[in-house]
TrEMBL record:
UniProt xrefs under SUPFAM superfamilies: Plant invertase/pectin methylesterase inhibitor (SSF101148)
Protein name: Pectinesterase inhibitor domain-containing protein
Superkingdom as given in the UniProt entry: Eukaryota
Family annotation (Gene3D superfamilies): Invertase/pectin methylesterase inhibitor family protein
Pfam family, one: PMEI
Domain Pectinesterase inhibitor: 43-136
Entry-linked NCBIfam families: PME_inhib
One annotated Gene Ontology cellular component of this protein: plant-type cell wall
Gene Ontology process terms (BP): plant-type cell wall modification
Membership in a protein family: Belongs to the PMEI family.
Molecular function GO terms recorded: enzyme inhibitor activity
Position of the signal peptide: 1-24
Amino acid sequence: MATMSATSIFFSAIAIMLLSTTIAAESSASGGGKPKVTNFMVEACKNASMKNKIYDPNPITQEFCVSTLMLDNRSAEAKDLHSLIHIAIDILKGQVAAANGNVKQMLQDTKNGTATMRALSYCMVDYDRMVSILNICDTMIKEYHGRKGGANDGLLSSELPACVERVDKPFIDCWLGLLAMEAKKLLDENFAVGMSVTLNFCLASTI
Ligand SMILES: *[C@@H]1O[C@H](CO)[C@@H](O)[C@H](O)[C@H]1NC(C)=O
Ligand SMILES: *[C@@H]1O[C@H](CO)[C@@H](O)[C@H](O)[C@H]1NC(C)=O
Ligand SMILES: *[C@@H]1O[C@H](CO)[C@@H](O)[C@H](O)[C@H]1NC(C)=O
């Protein structure tokens, strides 16, 4: 129950911030030599945008997907979904690392023994946990070559989105802690991470 209501608060916050995140993604993408958009990226993103959860009030759009993938110039070279998802996971891991760096920075300026200090410490552990889980998903995507039949014959395609979904718990835990301390910048970064998690889930669901 607690998680359910927390999730709905989170999703209502998404609507307000979606626009600014998209703008941020676009401006940083155009920073270092504009990566090109390929038909493959557009098609993969179109398919991904059809994999949104039915109850998600702020679904991933094809445009958001493309602008996020453009953050990494390797996306233009991707010829199959495996490479594209690997890149999307890398982008997400980079966003988590950046967000975590700023949590760590704030922790250094926070007095010991305070509730803020504890929330930040938990959040760092949550972000680390997200990266550990994403590393497992990344290994899965590298090893996945389609299932041929037998029960022990590699992984089911549904296992990949299920792996990505596991980051939801630490993500929401960190978000709740940051929400309580009203740390605007850290919350904005946390929000961007959340959108990227959803994108990874949708892309992984297209395999
Ligand atoms: C997108 O979905 C269509 C229809 O299922 C499929 O034929 C196509 O290969 C998919 N494209 C990508 C890039 O995943
Ligand atoms: C991608 O960008 C990096 C620097 O960000 C650059 O070193 C590399 O050559 C670029 N690769 C392509 C294929 O454009
Ligand atoms: C805060 O606690 C840590 C761990 O106990 C300690 O190493 C550090 O010196 C303390 N910092 C301050 C400013 O008291």
